Every structure is written in C-alpha cells, then in structure tokens.
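Fold these two proteins, one after the other.
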Amino acid sequence: MYKKIIVAVDVTDLEKAERIIPRAVNLLEAGGRIVLLSVVEDLPGYVLADVPPSIMADARQETETRLLDLRHEYSLSADIEVRHGAPARAILACAEAQEADLIILASHRPDFSNYFLGATADRVVRHAQCSVLVDR
C-alpha cells in the first residue's frame, strides 16, 4: 500500500483516467492521499504570436475543472494540481515535491516516433525516484 500517490491524468483522454483512478484508490493505504495531476503543455513561441494571450489561462482553468469533475465522480478527497511544461518533467517534479511513493499514469501503444523521442511514460519510468505503475 502507498501513502501518497500521484495520478497523472491527460484530460484530453479521460477514458484512460477512468482506468487508473480506481487502481490508485485500491493501492492507497488508510490515511493516504491521492494527487490528481494534469500538465498543460507550453505552446512554442512561434505559436504564441498567433493565439490570444488568455489561451494558457483558459487551458489551465479547463484542466482544473475536468480534474475537479473526476474527483467528484469518484468521490475522492484527492488534491488537485495543474502544472505547466513538459509532461514528464512536470510529473517527476510533482512527485518529488509531494514526496510521493507511487506515480500512476496511462500510456498509449508506442508508435514509430517513440523510438526517436520516447514517450512520457518512458521518461517517467527512467527518472522517477519512486515506484511507477504504467497502465497500457
């Protein structure tokens, strides 16, 4: 059982969240905490010139709303955290800051681009200082 579990949620693919949240609940020890985390990726500078300045604030607000909805749907007393930046780096930073002993995240089937760039889950598994459960 785990005391602090980071559940990394991609709010654009809630079907995966519906698989990993119950796993987190089952693995949480009594008195433990779940942190629902989602990462809003930064837009490249060349794109920012063509989008409204509020787009990042809007993305953050929508992400937070979806996490709150998930928390309500599963009747969790989970903490909500939204971070900006590269997903793997943000997940690892959250796990370290929260002193998590488990990270749970979903992965997709690897495609050709993963062989060159690597997937978020690959990076998290390689660099995490705690246990990682990857749902495929």
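Now the second one:
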Amino acid sequence: MNSTIWMALALVLVLEGLGPMLYPRMWRRMIAALTQLPDNTLRRFGGGLVVAGVVVYYMLSRAAG
C-alpha cells in the first residue's frame, strides 16, 4: 500500500508537469485567469477535485480487493 501512494504521487507530478512543459503560454494564461476568480469559486473547484479524487480512489481500492 505504501508504494502505491508514492506511485500515485509520482503520476500526479507527471500529469501536473505536462501542461507547463507542452503548452507554457496557454498554461500561464490559465493561471492568470484563475487568479481573477473569486475565492468561493476556487474553493468550490478545489473541493470538487478533492471529492472526485476520493471517489476515484475508493472505486479503485474496492476493485483491487
């Protein structure tokens, strides 16, 4: 289980790095646009990502047995 968490973290880092590596200008514009959003919108977006991650983790852990 411990190595699975590290592998998941490594995959997150790879996926997070693809945007700035492949599309730096678009990534910079997206970040600039995010800074203009109200705090509540960012909180909801972040909360949605957390919930989606927990659901995916739960589904994968149940499928793995």
